[in-house]
Each structure stands twice: as C-alpha cells, then as structure tokens.
Q: What sequence folds into this?
C-alpha cells in the first residue's frame, strides 16, 4: 500500500536517427555534446521502455508497479477493461520525415499477431509486422509549427495533382473519379525501374525549384527536395515509392496547441517539428515507404482506408480550471493541456493513472498528503482517485494523459 499518491516520473529517451539534436536535451536540461539524435521521450509502462517512478523505496519500474499494484495505480475499472496502462505518452522532435504508415484495428492486430506467432516469426525479427495484439490510434498536439501527411486528398484535389504534375498524367485514368485503391496498388506494385523513370525527373525538378526559393512547405515538392536534395543523383539508388504519398496525401500544417487524431487505417507520416503524442499502448506499425525498416506492401494495403478526407485540426475545448481538452474517439486515452497564468489554480481528481508533463514554466501540485514542485522537463504520475490542486508561481504549460 502506497501512502503517497503523487510521484515524480522519469521517462525513457529514444535516439532514433530522424530525431533532432537540441529540442529534447534543452527541454530536459541535459548535455548533448555527443551530438546524438534525441527523437522521442517515452512516459508510460510499455514493456520495451517503461518509465521509472521515484518512490521513497527508490526508483521502480512503472510497468512492474502497474502489474503488482494495479488497484492503486490504474484502478480496477481500467485493469478490467485493458489489463494494463492502456496509453503511451511521448514528446517527439522530428528533424527528418518519418515512414509512411498505417495502424491496424484491434481485431486486425489480434489476427495478425496470432498469425505471425503461428508462423514462428520471432517477436524481435525485423520482418515482424505485429508486435502485440493491440490497435494503435494516436493523437498529436503540436509544440511548435508542425507538419505532417494525413490521409488521402479529396478526389477533386488529387485529380488536380495528377493533371498538374506531368509525370503523373499516365495515372489519371487509373484513378478515374476517385479509385484510391487502384491508384495505390498501381504505384506500390509498379516495377522499380518504372518508379525510377517516373519519379527521377520530378525529383530533379523539385530540387531546382527549392534551390530557387520557388517552393513552400505547403507544397509536396518542398519535402521531396528535402529528402533528395542533399546528395547527387548517382547516389540516390532506387527511388523510394513513398514519394507518391507525399503528392497523394494531405499536407497538414499545425501551430502550437493544435491537434490531429489518427485512427486505424488512415495513412500518415510526420514531416517536421516538435509535438506531444499520445497513443494506445502498442507498437504495431505497417510501413509503406520513406524508411529503411521493414515494408510490407500487401499488409499495408489490406489495412489502409482508401478514401479522401479533409483533416480535422483540433484547437481543443476550453474547460474551467485552465484546462483544454482534445476529444479523441477512443476509450484507451484522453489528453488535455493545462495552461495557467500566475496565481491561477487547477483542481481535479484522477479517474485513472494520470501523467502530467511540464513543457514550459513550473508548478506546485498539492495532493491529499504530499506536495511536489515540478519544473520544465519534469513529469509527475498521479494515482487513481487522488484529488489534487495545481498552482503556479509564474505560469505553466503542461499536458496531461489519462484514461477517460
């Protein structure tokens, strides 16, 4: 039985190659003289990289605490529904664009995981698609100007792209009035020499346009030129067919505090910037390009939603107590922003394990028997049913993850 109900939490850093060098180290207040990429900071109980809880008995794994003391940490209702802490909370710094990807539904993830288990594909194999039986819906809230690809453009917009890009004109009849599946299958199964022949002149042209300053980040050519502009054409090798997706998908621009939810089957990729990301506690990613990792085209296409969408950029719903909620249509997680000016307060009672991360400023959090001072770069875990009050000496911006 834990007397304290509020604890400092230490997350786990992921040094993926696409990460930036400054944002996360500066935010955490740590040295990066080794010039390592700091891509993600994980806060949660994912078994591959669980956070540690700073308790009077020392630093303990959150994953282990959730397993051993689930009644206190996540609550019996969450444990009955999920059997674990159902979310994973992250801070991301995207320097180079991430892979084109799709996440499966819960039913598809369960079937895919069990099929790979039966086939004897090792869990740590680079050819494995399904690492667990869970779905992976996710929401991101921008911490800076943030750019991403999200879903196919609507039929009229995509038809215009195919007409305006000379290399894509042979694809007009394949797409027709809006056959996203036929277009995607054609491009993803095209012979590599045909991909190279179609895309190489397009890429060369975009590089020239970007060098002249004729492109903006709202245009696909800018990102294609960023991808290929650093090296001469003889070093390109085979052109990545993910380039098609940069033209076919919506390019979404978000400002700090704006959010985008990504459900199962919606193809997407992060392009550039910093964000807070919250997702179901899963590592199931089906990739379709722009990555050195395993790409499984048939599996990707099997789970892609082939329809044009207008992206929903959420500004959040302001509640009392300085809290802004971003509604997400899933049971696994909820996210809110806590923005307080000097001497403002926020009162709440944790309905599940809550994780609050401070992005800017500092705050004091007073629970029923314990208070903590939490500053920029620090994280706090609040156990289920604990009532608490947040106050700030000079202003604070924080994000909270919870189970709704």
A:
């Amino acid at each position: 039985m834990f007397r304290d109900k509020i604890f400092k939490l230490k997350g786990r850093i992921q040094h993926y190659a696409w990460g930036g060098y400054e944002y996360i180290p500066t935010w955490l207040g740590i040295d990066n003289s080794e010039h390592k990429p700091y891509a993600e900071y994980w806060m949660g109980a994912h078994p591959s990289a669980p956070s540690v809880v700073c308790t009077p008995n020392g630093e303990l794994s959150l994953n282990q605490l959730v397993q051993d003391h689930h009644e206190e940490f996540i609550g019996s209702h969450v444990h009955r529904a999920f059997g674990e802490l159902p979310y994973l909370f992250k801070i991301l710094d995207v320097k180079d664009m991430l892979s084109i990807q799709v996440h499966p539904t819960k039913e598809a993830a369960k079937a895919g995981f069990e099929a790979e288990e039966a086939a004897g594909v090792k869990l740590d194999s680079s050819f494995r698609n399904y690492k667990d039986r869970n779905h992976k819906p996710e929401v991101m809230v921008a911490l800076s100007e943030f750019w991403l690809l999200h879903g196919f453009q609507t039929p009229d917009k995509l038809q215009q792209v195919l007409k305006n890009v000379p290399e894509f004109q042979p694809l007009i009849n394949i797409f027709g009035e809006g056959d996203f599946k036929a277009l995607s299958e054609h491009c993803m199964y095209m012979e590599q020499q045909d991909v190279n022949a179609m895309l190489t002149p397009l890429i060369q042209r975009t590089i020239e346009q970007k060098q002249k300053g004729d492109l903006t980040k709202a245009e696909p050519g800018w990102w294609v030129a960023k991808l290929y502009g650093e090296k001469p054409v003889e070093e390109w090798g085979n052109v990545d067919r993910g380039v098609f997706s940069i033209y076919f998908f919506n390019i979404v621009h978000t400002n700090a505090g704006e959010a985008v939810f990504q459900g199962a089957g919606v193809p997407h990729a992060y392009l550039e910037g910093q964000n807070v990301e919250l997702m179901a506690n899963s590592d199931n990613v089906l990739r379709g390009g722009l990555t050195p990792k395993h790409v499984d085209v048939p599996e990707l296409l099997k789970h892609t939603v082939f329809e044009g969408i207008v992206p929903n950029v959420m500004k959040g719903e302001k509640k009392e107590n300085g809290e802004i909620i971003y509604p997400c249509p899933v049971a696994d997680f909820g996210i809110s922003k806590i923005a307080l000016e000097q001497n403002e307060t926020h009162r709440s009672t944790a309905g599940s394990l809550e994780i609050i991360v401070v992005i800017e400023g500092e705050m004091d959090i007073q629970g029923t028997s314990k208070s903590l001072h939490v500053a920029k770069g620090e994280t706090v875990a609040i156990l289920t049913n604990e009532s608490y009050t947040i106050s700030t000496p000079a202003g604070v911006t924080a994000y909270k993850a919870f189970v709704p």
Remarks:
- The chain has a mean pLDDT of 96.
- The first helix runs from residue 23 to 28.
